[in-house]
Amino acid sequence: xxxxxLAAVGTWVARHPWRMLGVWLVLLAGAVALEPVFSARQTAIxxxxxxxxxxxxxxxxxxxxxxxxxxxxxxxxxTPSASIAEPAQRDIVExxxxxxxxxxxxxxxxxxxxxxxxxxxxxRAAVAAxxxxxxxxxxxxxxxxxxxxxxxxxxxxxxxxxxxxxxPLAQAVVDAETAGASRAEAIGxxxxxxxxxxxxxxxxxxxxxxxxxxxxxxxxFGILGLASLATPLNGILSAVVPMIxxxxxxxxxxxxxxxxxxxxxxxxxxxxxxxxxxxxxVAAAMRTSGTTVLFSGAVVMMCLLTLLVIPAQxxxxxxxxxxxxxxxAVLTALTLLPAxxxxxxxxxxxxxxxxxxxxxxxxxxxxxxxxxxxDTVTRHPVPVAALAVAALLVATLPVLHLRLGIDLGAxxxxxxxxxxxxxxxxxxxxxxxxxxxxxxxxARDSGTVTERIRRIPGVAEVLSGPGDRSADGRSVHLxxxxxxxxxxxxxxxxxxxxxxxxxxDGDLQVGGPTAExxxxxxxxxxxxxxxxxxxxxxxxxxxxxxxRSLLLPLKxxxxxxxxxxxxxxxxxxxxxxxxxxxxxxxxSSGSVQVYLPLTAFALLFGLSMDYEVFLIRRxxxxxxATGDTTHAVTAGLxxxxxxxxxxxxxxxxxxxxxxxxxxxxMKQIGFGLAAAVxxxxxxxxxxxxxxxxCLAGRWNWWLPARLDRLLPHLDAD
Length: 717
Description:
The chain has helices spanning 2-15, 17-41, 53-64, 87-101, 136-154, 166-200, 203-228, 237-267, 275-305, 313-344, 356-359, 369-379, 381-396, 417-428, 446-454, 489-499, 513-547, 551-576, 581-584, 596-626, 629-656, 664-696, 705-710, and strands at 71-78, 106-110, 125-132, 160-164, 404-405, 437-441, 459-463, 476-482, 508-511, 592-593. The chain has 717 residues and is α+β, with helices and mostly antiparallel strands. The strands form 3 sheets. It has a 4-stranded antiparallel sheet with strand order 2-3-1-4, sandwiched between helices. A 4-stranded antiparallel sheet has the order 7-8-6-9, with helices on both faces. A two-stranded parallel ribbon has the order 5-10. This is Putative drug exporter of the RND superfamily. Its main location: membrane. It is found in: Cell membrane.
């Protein structure tokens, strides 16, 4: 059914290629117009959990404390030599702060000369407190404008001023991630092109997947821009969407181009095939590889959407953004690419590179290394499988001491204004003051509550100022400055102790970024097994329908768990334990980003199905023609090993290039995904899968007759 439908789509596109190109021209023009909207309105990653205590505190501060502002930031002031307390420097500082206070988003500014502790011991740095109004996203977008104002006011003077706080730091992280994504693309795409040139042997065939992946990515960003008109989207999508979109987009296109070339070659029409031969080749490629692309994309998107069960904006935006990237990659491969292939026809084989003839049908020659490896696996499946499983289990061992945490990315901000200000703050004062805890209580004796909070280990100071009593006089806000880094495990423990603090004549709630980290960590932990169960269950059902087998989906689930576990183990070993800190240039936080394991699990499980579907469908084609499982495994692996290896190398290059990012979370994401793809394409697809299938024999294709009648036949030709 699916194969026939896609063949019909391919036939129509091949007969009307210019119409399809016209449709895509309109889509891409719209995407070009809308993409800047996403870039302008993107916000930093937020850790808020719907309905959590930290979310309630944020709402209380917005509605009941209109006089205090939504966010407390700092202006870090410094001079290279002269004392900032000297009259000349003081006049400059007062003038700059007076100008800042006139901005409509600024509620108030507290001068560094108004109280103790706001001028550094060496008198060459000072801090001014700034209260800002507006939403968190609005403050973040406004931060660069306020920094430019400070730059303009201090230009030509010995004083430098840096706006530092959650909003400014978050915007700087978004900028760093965007710059890192551009740098990664500049590294990953040329490597992908080199792999394609080596694997396909012609320039046009190699360029097609790159172009297809790029057009799909542009469409994805256009849709994100359209969505941004309604609501700002998470800035991490500017890095994750290119990573996923290019990786799967290039792979999907390569599978179709490879099958199209095979079909043309099988037709015996030479390098100048007629139009009917080209139309037939496109239709056949869509019926076979097109079906594989559709099924692969569907299972990836299905796995990613399971993240929506976690009631947090971070997971919603990641799930929808990555699903969109995969969806546009599938759409581009199944609509735009067939039109281009039709117009190119035999031109896809030009210009031929010197090694082209060696890569065409190389797997069919018995003397090649690939053919010898296939024979080894099929003749000795037990020892081969045992060695592969042992290697995967050893790689998985570090997962036993996995620790989840948050790294805000401040160490990767380089010479940005927020980064420089944060470093001065850490050296001369305390960087912890940037992200205080927000405590809101209704106790009548606020002084007693304040003193009890001060006695909690890990608390440096408790502050209360103008606007910290609610409009109705019933609630009090306290800013709790931590003595430990706000993204540390010790800070999370302070939040737990604060929330456990008994208040006999009222209630007490704790919010702020650190409280959000704790709420997200606990929500992630509580929903982990639900996400895992959904991913495993949906994958098993989907593959049962596609493969018409019970054993193959069960094998796929088990092997994907092995591959994912091994990738997690390498991630823990390299980043949490810091073994890769020097070669990859980062300071280990002693943990893995809290949202990464679950997000990576859903994504990796889906991506691993790409190669599973590609390999098993090719094996099944041969088995249906011959009825010989061993021959089917051998022939299927010989046909798919090179494309799978090339596809994995491409995806690993695109993902792995993100380790060059300055932001730790992007390094972790890129490394984890690249490691998982390489493990899956080598130890799993080219070793374990054929070995286990040879051992299972005819049981690979067993499906109870009653179940076969009940299940839909998606893959029927």
